[in-house]
Design brief:
The chain is mostly helical. It is about 70% helix and about 0% strand. The chain has one domain. The longest helix is centred in the middle third of the chain and has 21 residues.
Length: about 150
Amino acid sequence: MSKKRKAYRPRPVRLNACATALERNRVMKQAVTADFTDELEIAALAAIDAVARGHGTKDQWDTLANCLNHGWLLAKAGLGAEARETFNDAHEAMRRMVPVYHETSVLAFQSKPDQESVESAIALWIEQLKIITIGELAGAMQVVEENYWKHREA
């Protein structure tokens, strides 16, 4: 007796797989829209305001840390390279908040110069967002999420 052949069942194929990849590449090369930058800007400015008033939370500290890390990464990559020192000063200001927070449970800037350094770094980051493409934004944000410090490590 002969062996039966396996029934032919074709696998489904995405008809527009190439079109999806081409469209994704086209979108990644577009400039970041003002709508998107406005949302990021509002989140960062709200976090600065809460921390400046002494009502900051870990999530707001995280928001500021992500913004500063993102801006520092873009500056390191060459977009506003002269601003790296500003981002380093802002990082130090953020680090100075942590020990006081552990002692008092109040998340606030330790001095007016600390607040001003973080505010100026966030302003530079907002300007960087207006220049970069969606692909650069997505790539930098992914690196920041994977590699840089947050409150869980503080």
